[in-house]
Amino acid sequence: MDPRPKTPERREDALSRERIVASAIGLLDEEGERALTFRALANRLSTGSGAIYWHIPDKDALLSAATETVLSRALAGIAGGSDPADTLRAIALSVFDAIEVHPWVGTQLAREPWQPAMVEVFERSSAQFDLLGVPRGSLFHCVSAFVQYLLGSAAQTAAAARHKFRASERPAVLAAIVERWTRRDPGEYPFVHLLAEQVRTHDEREAFLAGLDLILAGAKPAR
Amino acid sequence: MDPRPKTPERREDALSRERIVASAIGLLDEEGERALTFRALANRLSTGSGAIYWHIPDKDALLSAATETVLSRALAGIAGGSDPADTLRAIALSVFDAIEVHPWVGTQLAREPWQPAMVEVFERSSAQFDLLGVPRGSLFHCVSAFVQYLLGSAAQTAAAARHKFRASERPAVLAAIVERWTRRDPGEYPFVHLLAEQVRTHDEREAFLAGLDLILAGAKPAR
DNA sequence: CCTGCTCTGGAACGGCGTTCCATGACTATT
DNA sequence: AATAGTCATGGAACGCCGTTCCAGAGCAGG
Q: Where would one find coiled-coil regions in this protein (chains A, B) (predicted)?
């Protein structure tokens, strides 16, 4: 017999996978990655930790589901323009921006890159590289580079966000990096000294786009 | 008064930061990232977990020190050739290869990219981009892209190694990915189907180099 | 009303990072 | 040689964590 003929809807505040994942996202956003524990989550949902395990197998699955939710929502709103390069920038930026809002997504993506939503990124970006004129034989390498650059930036953004939980701490954190860099011997590390000042004033989003353009420029000659 | 006029050398088997870090590297290499606990480490060193804290402040510092040791060793053996692009490849490969041998370095680098050894990477790679003819104004973006691509590949290599602890499991793991990819509708995901086969046979090191060349090719027009 | 299922929530388990502290090992001073 | 004082050790203990267990609440069909 069908185990669930119609939706049970036992009570109004019933637990569900969706409600749990939504609550986990809230916890991650508001209090950071370390705050997501089954106890805190159970408390937030006014239940016991055991109840959660009825809907979610373990913490890895919970983090994957949360990442998946955020990522697929971010990818849903991409407008496919006429210029393939612009569309590639839009794809990359939608992931980048999602990670700036939810840094824990970057951490998770670096740890578990094969999320289902990433398949979406592969499909869409390879289509654009194809439109760009990249031959089939080079497609894989282009898309790989695109995704790995994306994941590297994602991880770095997440790591930065971990150190400056509030945006106001940004100058202090950057100053500390500059200080550690310039402490080195300028004779032995001339370029580090040269770049140190740019670290202080750099815009992460702009640097991300500039690096992306390097890859796109490199993909052109691959035609 | 000088607290330590000459080296104490109290006993032959004395604990030391070096011995602890070396032991931690051994544990990480032989049994994986999850096996590194202060208890297991203390057991390996025939001591108590409390003794370790006299030399190392906490687990983060231990992982940083281990990463630093492996990374600076890897960077030490780079021959600076005459071609800047080749030297850049050599720098990137030395990090990539170190991570293939010690996957946990990739995890750590994705979590904490500002290791002291990474300053070495910044210095050396920016010098090579400079030799390549990249103007000072674009140097920062080129080096950033280079490092972020490196870190993205590092994280992905580490993640892959986590799933196939023994090399023999590689085909099975790749087959599982291919299966999950090809399960999707070929009409909706044509490129994923196209790339799926290449995933099975791809060589990570070769793909890494191909992606790197995209960035190097993109950096050339930046002159 | 009873039976059997889904779902709940709190207790319990083993393991973790870290702290605490009594004590051993050694040096410097008398 | 005895003592004082510091460095270093290692095992116990604390508070958390993810996860498992299970008694029982709520509900459906016979």
A: none
